[in-house]
Write a structure and sequence with these properties.
Layout: H1 9-16, E1 26-34, E2 40-47, H2 53-64, E3 75-79, H3 90-100, H4 105-118, E4 125-139, E5 145-162, E6 174-178, E7 180-182, E8 185-187, E9 190-195
Antiparallel strand pairs: 1-2, 1-4, 3-9, 4-5, 5-6, 6-9, 7-8
């Protein structure tokens, strides 16, 4: 996997404007709680619309933290090479999670197991996944929106957060947006990877 493309900050801001209570683009949220040894202690999978207003607000803040972070500093584009897209690869799993819109619990369990095996952490953490759809509006030559949908951007956001007693979550330490949102369009050959500490990034999952 290589990083050779700069993420457009305006593209990320465009997405985050659809991550509010009034303009929510998320359809589903799933997640797992992992202990210090990488074993899953519990999981959940629910329609985002079934959350209470308070729960929506809390989870929107977690999801939004990924695309709203400093582009090309904390959030960096990574390109999948052909050898990264073979059967059984993480790319194939991400494509399947996106296609099923997080409704396949068996596939989610495999994903959590991979995270638990690879992710380095000395504390308990939670893996949260969000599925969203964004109708990308056409834009005129002057940049004004024409409100006609050009493409539906079907995506998932992953956020890995420390968690404490009573399942209180901290803000994400690692995460991603897949597929990448490049030139206001789906880029299935790329992923935007987030590290809260850009000087000491989690590279083990790459």
């Amino acid at each position: 996997m290589k990083s050779d493309i700069q993420i457009n900050r305006n593209d990320m801001l465009e997405l985050t404007r659809r991550m509010t209570l009034k303009r929510n683009c998320f359809t589903r949220i799933a997640g797992a709680y992992v202990d210090e040894d990488g074993f899953v202690d519990g999981s959940f999978n629910i329609s985002f619309l079934d959350l209470s207003a308070k729960e929506k607000t809390t989870n929107l803040a977690i999801a939004k933290a990924i695309p709203f972070s400093d582009t090309n500093v904390n959030l960096k584009y990574v390109r999948f090479q052909k050898e990264d897209q073979k059967p059984g690869s993480m790319w194939q799993m991400l494509m399947a999670l996106r296609e099923c819109k997080l409704k396949n619990d068996a596939l989610l369990d495999v994903f959590y197991e991979v995270i638990g095996e690879k992710y380095h952490s000395k504390e308990q953490y939670a893996v949260y996944l969000f599925h969203g759809n964004y109708d990308i509006p056409l834009k005129a030559g002057d940049g004004e929106s024409l409100w006609e949908s050009e493409e539906v951007y079907n995506f998932i956001i992953c956020a890995i957060c420390p968690f404490y007693g009573n399942y209180e979550l901290g803000m994400p330490k690692w995460g991603f947006l897949f597929p990448a949102f490049t030139d206001r369009s789906s880029d299935i050959n790329g992923i935007a990877v987030y590290n809260a500490d850009e000087k000491h990034p989690h590279v083990e999952l790459l």
